[in-house]
Fold this protein.
Amino acid sequence: VEMNLISYTSLIDVHTRSGQVKEAKRLFTEMRSEGIEPNVVTYSTLLKGFCSEGNMNEAASTFREMLDRGLSADTVTFNTLLDGCAKNDHFELADMLLREMK
């Protein structure tokens, strides 16, 4: 099977759901090195993994990278990050996200 955006995003999702966020990040990096650019779904999936493990610094950094690459956050992206902020007591980041949503 030739890897493409959908197959990489699916694998990243499987790894984030099973708590293997480091492997998900590795796949994300591999995907980009293969010339396959992630979309907002791919980023949101990886963000979900960072939030679930409480790594809000990495989530914020990845979110900023997504925006810097010209992608716009959607409702899923914001909900994922705001949920992570609430569960991990990162209210300053939540405030920044709310400003970004306007």
Notes: The helical segments are 5-17, 21-33, 40-52, 56-68, 75-87, 91-101.
